[in-house]
């Protein structure tokens, strides 16, 4: 979707090529909401090619002033390169097509991967960040940073990442899409009368995706039931319609006379004003935010004095 974070009315909006060589998108009120920022006094042509690329070029010669392939949203079509200057950004959800938290691009080490860019934190989750690039068959020596899906279902990347789709070998309609759940997939179909099906995906089990259930939560996955998000004990869902907001505490967080044991990157609050709270967990950053004094730091033990 073009102009996804500020969409226009699809009925009376206009895409126009001006005599100045600039492409402009006007909404129903004739406000300029987008332009290609191009200029030329030469005769021009705006041409939609068979591969899906919308190209603005000079009629005399082969100079391309602008092309849609340079501005992908969440989808690539066969022959459309992903480069050092482009990236895929997932939609916020299946029904909200504005920019979401998941991105697919080449990082500074020349590795093509999936990344989470959330409200408070960012991280990489594919390929597995704790493994070295050569452990997952990648190479960071090629700085060209280019990847492309071929018309037969083959994918090549400059970091040596390659794959073929399950229907490799035949020419059919295909798209490579970063879905709103943070997983990149290839979809195929023979023609427009048929439904899309998944012919390749980066991994299965969406709990691998960072931030999918938000802070202070757990994620479980079943091939039959799919993904399930749950709040940790003592917490509740912050936004009933969106798990990415995570969970918030159901207790009043004050720090006087609080006794805390830290173990295995979790915190167990065991005593608060001499009243037993139980195994309510809170992240370290929450304690620091409230200027809590952390006492009784001990290693993990199954027999915590609770």
From TrEMBL:
**Pfam short name (any one):** S_locus_glycop
Subcellular location, principal: membrane
Report the residue ranges that make up the Bulb-type lectin domain in this protein. Answer: 1-69
Topology relative to the lipid bilayer, per the entry, is:
Single-pass membrane protein
InterPro entries per UniProt? Bulb-type_lectin_dom, Bulb-type_lectin_dom_sf, S_locus_glycoprot_dom
- Do you know which PROSITE patterns this protein is assigned to? BULB_LECTIN
Cellular localisation: Membrane
What is a single molecular function from GO for this protein? kinase activity
Sorted alphabetically, the keyword list is: Disulfide bond, Glycoprotein, Kinase, Membrane, Receptor, Signal, Transferase, Transmembrane, Transmembrane helix
A GO term from the CC aspect: membrane
Looking at the record's lineage, which domain of life comes first? Eukaryota
- What biological process terms from GO does the record include? recognition of pollen
Gene3D superfamilies given in the database record:
Bulb-type lectin domain
The protein's matches in PANTHER family, at most eight in alphabetical order, are given as: OS07G0415500 PROTEIN, RECEPTOR-LIKE SERINE_THREONINE-PROTEIN KINASE
Q: What's the name of the protein? A: Receptor protein kinase 1-like protein
Organism of this sequence: Trifolium pratense
